[in-house]
Every structure is written in structure tokens, then in C-alpha cells.
Amino acid sequence: MASPKPRSGPSILLTVLYLAFAIIGLYALYGLVQSGTGSAIIELLYLAVATLALGFVAFSLMRLRRNYALLNPTPNRVFEIVKCPQCSFKQIKNFALGDYVTKGLGLCTQCNAANLFIDGIYGEGPRRK
Ligand SMILES: [Zn+2]
Fold first, then answer.
1. What pLDDT sits at residue 37?
2. Are residues 96 and 112 in the same domain?
3. pLDDT tens digit string along 15-56?
4. N or C: lower Cβ tally within 10 Å for the chain?
């Protein structure tokens, strides 16, 4: 019943806010370019608004990206347990693309009697910083 909601956060509200700031900043830039005969104070005002608005958007996006990177760390290392059904041979090796549990890997290097197979695939936990 208590189905966990996906952690999206107040992203829609923030997106609208960023969009509004971006529009204000671009509009101010546009005004700055257009006001060729305007007074220096108005141009300065436009420049200040544009810098503040676009700076805020850029800063927020950078922070958002960093948060996203924290939520989605680089993929952990994945290992496989290779076992021989005949002898007690057991090996842990790095996961290779296309490998799956129960996949055969050829004759056992220890007893040369049975085929090695992948007994399990598991990933290393997230790295502590
Ligand atoms: Zn064996």
C-alpha cells in the first residue's frame, strides 16, 4: 500500500523558477542590446539583472548536476563466482558483458572433468568516501 514514490523532489517548481529567471535574464540582455541610445544607468540595470538571473540559473543547474551525480554514482564493480560441479574449485572473476548465472565456461582447470559454470553474479557495495 505504501508504495515508495520516486525521489523526484520539487523539480517541476524549480524548473519553472529557473525558466522564469532564464527568461528574465535573456530579456534583460535583449534590452541591453536594444537600448543603444538609453542612459548608462538603464544599461547597467539591465546588465545587473541579466547577470544575476543567468548567474542564479547557472549556479542552480551546477548544484543540481552535483546532486544528480551524488545520487547516481559510477557503476560499482561486478564480480562472478565461477564454480566446478566436480571438484571444489571456486574462482572469483570480473563480470564480463554477456555473462549470466549457469553459463558454462569450459572444462575445469583443476580436474579437467566437468565444465565450470557461473554460480553467481554480485556487485560490490558503494564505495565509502
Ligand atoms: Zn573441477
1. 57
2. yes
3. 888 888 889 888 888 887 776 656 778 788 888 888 998 898
4. N
Q: 98 CA to middle of ligand 1, Å? A: 23
77 CA → ligand 1 middle, Å: 26
Q: What's the 106 CA to ligand 1 centre distance in angstroms?
A: 10
By the CB criterion, residues less than 5 angstroms from ion ligand 1 are 84, 86-87, 89, 108, 110-111
Question: What's this model's pTM, rounded to 2 decimal places?
Answer: 0.41
Hey, which residues does 80 pair with through a beta bridge?
93, 121
Residue closest to 111 by CA, chosen among 93, 89, 92, 90: 89
Last residue of a domain, one of 71, 91, 114: 71
What is the count of structural domains for the chain?
2
CA of 110 to the centre of ligand 1 (A): 5
**C-alpha–C-alpha distance, residues 9 and 51, integer Å:** 27
